[in-house]
Amino acid sequence: MLRRVLLAMSENDTVERFTRTSALSRPVVQRFVAGDTLEDVVAATSALLGSGLLASIDRLGEHTTERAHAEEVVAAYLALLARLGGAGLTAGAEVSLKLSAVGQAIDESMCLEFASTIVEAAAAVGTVVTFDMEDHTTTESTLRMLAEVRLAHPETGAVIQAYLRRSAGDIEELIRSSARVRLCKGAYAEPESVAFQGKHEVDANYARLLARLMLRGHYPMIATHDPRLIAIAGELARRSGRARDTFEYQMLYGVRPQEQRRLAADGNRVRVYVPYGQEWYAYLVRRLAERPANVTFFARALASRT
Ligand code: FDA
User: Whose alpha carbon is nearest atom 9 of ligand 1?
Assistant: First the structure.
């Protein structure tokens, strides 16, 4: 219930204006977002790589409705990739891209062209792109564009959401085509017709999809902070004899940082999803919705300053 209310807030303009302009939000934003600028994210990425972690950088922003804005997003990604290349960070840092930020809702062929430009720029500096997965109305189009882009750049990564009922079929298709697959639970408010609603059902489906990926997948990317699922992944890797450089754990910037370091110290590849930029509102609300304690943390930050 609280999750649905919070996720509805992510689309409320008045709450967004208040949250974005209030200095009171800063401490909470800083926990989950690496900063506003390219300099901020390069510094955060260097620090993560220096401590033995990997990174996937997301330039915040979604639901672009104008071509000019989509072009700005492409330019920002090209600048990011050039900086990562120049700073020698591309061996450990890839990028994540929301197709809605580059015009998925405006025109799919334009979006495909923009996404391809970013994927090619990534390849030119020695790194790769993973396409984030957004709400279920975009799933079909995202997988379609991914398949197109992968014809020339098969290393481009997919995201599968365990809460979607369709994901078992999608994951088989991605396994067949040897795609890199990031498996997450899913962060949007989805109707029962397309998504499992209970935590238990979502977790059980995650475990099923994880088993398929670990047994048959090309390069599983286990995106969860859930201790039970992380333990299951380790057990599956041991049982199937999967080498540690053929899969990775992934977690969000600011979430369970000690666990990130523990897994890395244990010899695992661990990638941190690092968002940056000024359009942090919708991302932040999804992080608050994932964990009621985050709302308390937010409320405490507000109270201590009022
Ligand atoms: P769950 O929510 O059950 O949390 C398990 C435990 O982890 C909690 O008990 C808590 O300890 C900790 N935890 C989880 N979230 C936390 C938070 N926000 N703050 C503090 N502690 C927290 N989703 C999507 O729909 N499309 C996408 O493309 C992506 N991409 C993506 C990339 C990466 C690298 C990650 C890690 C996640 C995503 N997600 C995503 C988000 C994902 O779908 C999901 O909403 C979150 O990861 C939270 O789910 P968990 O699997 O962590 O489990």
Answer: 226
Rounded Cα distance, 186 and 195, in Å: 9
Q: Residue 44 carries which side chain, given as an amino acid letter?
A: A
Hey, which residues are catalytic here? 132, 182
Calpha distance 249→267 (Å, rounded): 11
Atom of ligand 1 nearest to the CA of 202: 3
Binding site membership of 162 for ligand 1 (Cβ less than 6 Å): no
This model's pTM is above 0.70: yes
Locate the domains of the chain by residue range.
34-279
Is the CB of 226 inside a 6 Å radius of any atom of ligand 1?
yes
Q: Mind listing the pLDDT tens digit for each residue in 77-111?
A: 999 999 999 999 999 999 999 999 999 999 999 99
Which helix (H) or strand (E) segment is 141 a member of? helix 139-152
- CATH class for domain 34-279? alpha beta
Which residue has its alpha carbon closest to ligand 1 atom 12? Answer: 225
